[in-house]
Amino acid sequence: MSEMKHNWTKEDVLAIYNRPLMDLLFDAATIHREHHDPNTVQVSTLLSIKTGGCPEDCGYCPQAARYHTDIEGNDLMSVQHVKAQALRAKSSGSSRVCMGAAWRNVKDGEEFDQVLEMVRTINKLDMEVCCTLGMITENQAQRLAEAGLYAYNHNLDSSEEYYKEVISTRGYEDRLETIDNVRKTNVTVCSGGIIGMGEKPEDRAGMLVALATLNPQPESVPINALVAVEGTPLEDQTPVSIWDMVRMVATTRIVMPETQVRLSAGRTEMSREGQAMCFFAGANSIFAGDKLLTTPNPDVGEDMEMFKLLGLNPQKPFVKKSQPETVEANDSQYEALGEKPKWTRPEHKIERNEDAKQKAKVLR
Ligand code: SAM
Ligand code: DTB
Ligand code: SF4
User: Fold this and answer.
1) Ligand 3 within 6 A of CB of 25
2) For 55-93, what is each residue's pLDDT tens digit?
3) Which residues of the sequence carry a binding annotation for [2Fe-2S] cluster (predicted)?
4) Domain boundaries of the chain, sorted by first residue
5) Catalytic residue among 96, 120, 130, 143
């Protein structure tokens, strides 16, 4: 096996992305087979533990309070409810539960303590636990690790340049800092992005460079196709073509050979043939369950039929890394520091975000 390459440039990556499709697919599939079992796909279930009412202005997101979408907001879910959902996910073949909260960043206090209890509870069910809670400090990452967190998801979403066209309430450097905070613990890093937001292939390459030059590279990289939700600034984006998705997956596989590449949002729009091409190109993980966080996803039964048709097997938990131990709240060696980190707030004007916000005001 060759040494992992970390010095990717945008030119390198764009050249890979633009290769003749058959060459690109062949190389990606070859690299995939050198590093992974091509017939095994990791299955994660998403659980929105705190939905809607988010203060951020992410142009793609139906959970941003400032836009008018038909999302019903909820308070933080109870630990019992989360446990019941995790058991359901386990019985339907998922090895991982990914809990998402519509927060800008984690604040120390009762709600975070409740999330830590959710992490302990799911880890004790022998499932991999992932959280995506917005920006976190090193101390918060350590507390999550101690509770038994397996992965933390924090997407870069696009290139640094295009990020500014989508979000104005936080900066790219905040995202990188959170990833760095997670890296200081034994929690694995899950970070990827979205295609179909109006970005150019150069931006897709830029995002992959930002991820592939992290050392170590993220253990998992979700590739989402934008789900264009009515009321969000990106509601009118044309759907990405399957060819773009396949190119993105294949390029991700080539530049990050060891990573689990997750075929994420947007699968309801993809045919089985399209998804099969993505698996061939190196995707080896999916989100299963009829809902992502707030939008639809293929039915579990249909996914299992597809697995059967393609001869794919769900990956068992903890095959890539051993199960973390759970330390109980009373035995914790970390205390809540109550820090108030100065995450950035660029607040530059993004016209389409402003328009969507104005429209929401009229509709309310
Ligand atoms: N609030 C936290 C944050 O932003 O980091 C965690 C939850 S947030 C919903 C997690 C990720 O979901 C985003 O980074 C984005 O990549 C993805 N996402 C959100 N809305 C989406 C959409 N409409 N289509 C595709 N992906 C989406
Ligand atoms: C990721 O990259 N995609 C997931 C997960 N990580 C948190 C979320 C997709 C959300 C799609 C829009 C929704 O359902 O709200
Ligand atoms: Fe909030 Fe996350 Fe949605 Fe942005 S992506 S609006 S931070 S929930």
Assistant:
1) no
2) 999 999 999 999 999 998 999 999 999 999 999 999 999
3) 98, 130, 190, 262
4) 10-322+339-363
5) 130
